[in-house]
Every structure is written in C-alpha cells, then in structure tokens.
Amino acid sequence: MSGALTDGELAAHLAETAGRILLAVRDSGLFPGKALGVAGDQTANQFLCHALRAQRPEDGLLSEEEKDNEDRLARSRVWIVDPVDGTREYGEERADWAVHVGLAIDGVAALGAVALPGLDLVLRSDRPQPLPPGNRPPRMLVSRTRPAREAVAVAEQIGAELLAMGSAGAKAMAVVRGEADIYLHTGGQYEWDNCAPAAVAAAYGLHVSRADGSPLVYNRENTYLPDLLICRPEYAEPVLAAYRGVLAD
Questions:
Q1: β-strand pairing of 77-85 with 139-143
Q2: What are the beta bridge partners of residue 113?
Q3: What is the dihedral of CA 236, 7, 105, 167, to 10 degrees?
Q4: Does domain 139-248 have CATH number 3.40.190.80?
Q5: Was 96 annotated as part of a binding site?
C-alpha cells in the first residue's frame, strides 16, 4: 500500500495486518499454553504502536499493552488500540476475538476498524453497510464465561434470547453483522475495549451509549469505562428502561 492513507484506510490496514501477524504467531506452534497470548499481544502491539507513531506522529496513543503516556491528555486526536481483544479466545484457536484500532477526537470515538481475523473480516466506520434485518425474538450477547447478572435480567424482561460469545469486539461486530441485536455489558471495560467497536457500530446506525444512556467519553485520565450498550435503534429505549428497572430492584 503506497501513498498517503486516510485515517480510515490506516485504521483498517493496521487492524488487518495485525490480525495476519497474530494468525502467523499462533500458527507457528512455538508458544505453548499461556505463552501464546503473551507473544501475540506483545508482537501485535509493537507493530501497531510503531506504525502509528510513524504514520501519525502528532497524535496521541493509548494501547492496552503499552505503558500509558499522559501526554495524550493534551491531544485532540488519540489513537486507542487493543492488539488482541479476547486473548483467551485467541489462545484457544476460536474465531471470536478481534483487533481494535480506534481514533478518538475530542473525546468522541470518531473512527475505527475492527478486524475479526478468525473470520477474515475487517469492519470499518468509514465504509458502513446497511444493517441486516433484526432477529425475532431479539438476541442479546453475553460473556461466554461470566454472563453479567444485569444483562441476564434485562434479557428476561424484554424477551430476548441469550447468545454467548467471547471478546467485546466480536460481540459488538455480531450486532453490526446481524448475528445478534443487543450487546449490553456491565462487567467493566477500558477505553481500548470499546473505542473502535463503538465507532464502527455508530457508523452503521446502531445505538451506542453507556448502560444508562449517557455518552461514551474517551481519552480520560482514568481509562476505565464500566459499561456499554450497543444495539439496534428500536431496542435502545426498551433495554435502557429495563436496565433502570433492574438497578431499582
């Protein structure tokens, strides 16, 4: 790829290339057990961070696998990346893991690309597609290992089927792809877990917010973002109302 890349092209190129690197690391067979997750995280992180510093030297950078540099707080544009979202799934050779490359501008998830290397897909905020038809009854995504009590209770109230899946990015993109309709997360996340997925989901026309309906805000000193709602627009108010009811009980 030659010539100056737009932000969208850069995000997609980085996410796709990092995904190929991660598959090569896994396919090498050189890293037993938990060593594979460590090797994949560190290798993909080095690529993403070096490439972003080379391509966008004036921008800030926040990565799950990089020591935080508070210099980013003074920047309007900050790249927020997760080299391997779903390290467990990556290590287990599942498909429900992702690579996140997001760009926050003045605290808003303005642009993103999410690679799903196990599915050979990259979803981009700069090239949104029409949403597929929804499911009847609606499908709500939950963690495959530790479903949140609140999400299970909301699903019961609105009559949604539960669908267990791995990483946050894989879940968010399942809503984008029409495999599910609602992703309500209340178990705690960080900015890198949802910046790129939030940008892609919003570009596709999905509802994106905190679990109480307030906006997601990025590039904060404290990078903890405890909850998230990504869903088809028609389910936003029913889910928010049900969530408020669950909290009130």
A1: unpaired
A2: 101, 124
A3: 50
A4: yes
A5: no
* Each residue's pLDDT tens digit, 20-37: 999 999 999 999 999 999
User: For residue range 161-213, what is the model confidence (pLDDT) as tens digits?
Assistant: 999 999 999 999 999 999 999 999 998 999 999 999 999 999 999 999 999 99
Cross-strand bridge partners of residue 108: 105
82 is in an annotated binding site: yes
Phi, psi of 2 (to 5 degrees): -125, 165
Whole-structure pTM value: 0.96
Q: List, as one string, the DSSP characters of 222-247.
A: S-EE--EEEE-HHHHHHHHHHHHHHH
Which class for 152: exposed (0-12), middle (13-18), buried (19 or more C-beta within 10 A)? middle
> What are the phi and psi torsion angles at 99 (to 5°)?
-120, 130
CATH 3.30.540.10 positions along the chain are 7-124
First-to-final CA distance of the chain: 55
Q: What is the distance, to the nearest Å, from the Cα of residue 176 to the centroid of all Cα atoms in its chain?
A: 12
Asked whether residue 85 is marked as a ligand-binding residue, the answer is yes
Tokens of 186: 């209340």
The domain over range 7-124 is classified in CATH as 3.30.540.10: yes
The reply, when asked if residue 193 is annotated as ligand binding, is: yes
Q: Could you tell me where in the chain the CATH 3.40.190.80 domains are found? A: 139-248
Give the pLDDT confidence score for residue 148 in this predicted structure.
Answer: 85
**Tokens of residue 217, six digits:** 């805000």
